[in-house]
């Protein structure tokens, strides 16, 4: 099972996995029924989550029902516990929308919830995040999860986020970190071999490997960077129950 999932993840884009593997995974989830873990997004319970990963599968990672991963469940809990995301109707821009979020977010925010991507069939709006086709001060919140490592100019993209956010608005800007995490973010467009890019950047479609200077890169865009160790507020037992990584930091950016 681990090898099959690793091959699918490595060679099939996640947007297509989300579209075409849902029924099969839900069927597989029947054999994982139990009460040891709970997905806070879809409220389904299992004895454990499915393994997931490209080169090396992570245990207790993928929800068979809504296809959420550890980071998605952590962000959901963060939005629920530490923001007004589920207590008010907001105008929200969701970049590269994840399948597990779309229905509940649209139910919460209605027409104010806008999904966008340059190619994803899941998104309402097709756009390049370097030039967002919305006016200044338009959105209360932006969600951008594991996207900035793919774009040509992440600082420019975050400047666009700042432009379209309302004063007092905020964004969740998660990016992957691969060990060993460098002090300074590394970019090198001369590396073109896919396997070499995968080795250096974590995936062959990544254009940079983020370092400890990531908050400073957020600040360069004019946004205020906040690092929240929210995950560490959960005990090890609770973290396993929700299938989250306690060490993952939430990067929230605010527009003054």
Query: How are helices and strands ordered from N to C?
Result: HHHEEEEHEHEEEHEHHEHE
Mean of pLDDT = 91
**Count of DSSP-assigned helices:** 9
- Quick one: biggest sheet? 7 strands, mixed
CATH superfamily of the largest domain: Vaccinia Virus protein VP39
Globally, the shape reads globular
Number of domains: 2
CATH class of the largest domain: Alpha Beta
Q: For the largest sheet, list the strands in their spatial order.
A: 7-6-5-8-9-11-10
CATH architecture field of the largest domain = 3-Layer(aba) Sandwich
> Beta-sheet strand percentage?
15-25%
By helix and strand content, what is the structural category?
Answer: alpha/beta
Rg, Å, rounded: 18 Å
Distance between the termini: 48 Å
Q: What is the CATH fold-level name of the largest domain?
A: Rossmann fold
The helical percent reads 25-40%
Number of strands: 11
Report low-confidence residues grouped into runs of 5 or more.
none
């Amino acid at each position: 099972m681990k090898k099959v999932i690793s091959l699918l993840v490595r060679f099939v884009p996640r947007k297509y996995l989300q579209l075409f593997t849902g029924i099969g995974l839900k069927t597989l989830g029947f054999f994982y029924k139990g009460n040891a873990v709970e997905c806070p997004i879809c409220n389904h319970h299992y004895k454990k989550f499915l393994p997931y990963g490209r080169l090396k599968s992570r245990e207790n990672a993928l929800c068979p029902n809504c296809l959420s991963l550890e980071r998605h469940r952590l962000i959901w809990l963060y939005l629920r516990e530490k923001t007004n995301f589920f207590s008010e109707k907001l105008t929200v821009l969701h970049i590269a929308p994840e399948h597990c979020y779309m229905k509940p977010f649209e139910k919460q925010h209605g027409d104010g919830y806008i999904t966008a991507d340059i190619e994803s069939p899941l998104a309402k709006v097709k756009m390049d995040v370097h030039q967002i086709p919305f006016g200044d001060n338009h959105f209360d919140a932006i969600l951008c999860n594991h996207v900035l490592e793919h774009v040509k100019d992440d600082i420019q993209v975050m400047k666009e986020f700042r432009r379209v956010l309302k004063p007092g608005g905020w964004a969740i800007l998660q990016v992957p970190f691969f060990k060993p995490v460098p002090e300074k973010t590394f970019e090198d467009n001369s590396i073109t071999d896919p396997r070499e890019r995968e080795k250096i950047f974590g995936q062959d479609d990544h254009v940079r490997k983020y370092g400890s200077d990531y908050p400073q890169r957020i600040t360069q865009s004019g946004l205020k960077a906040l690092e929240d160790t929210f995950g560490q507020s959960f005990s090890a037992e609770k973290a396993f129950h929700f299938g989250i990584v306690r060490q993952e930091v939430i990067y929230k950016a605010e527009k003054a």
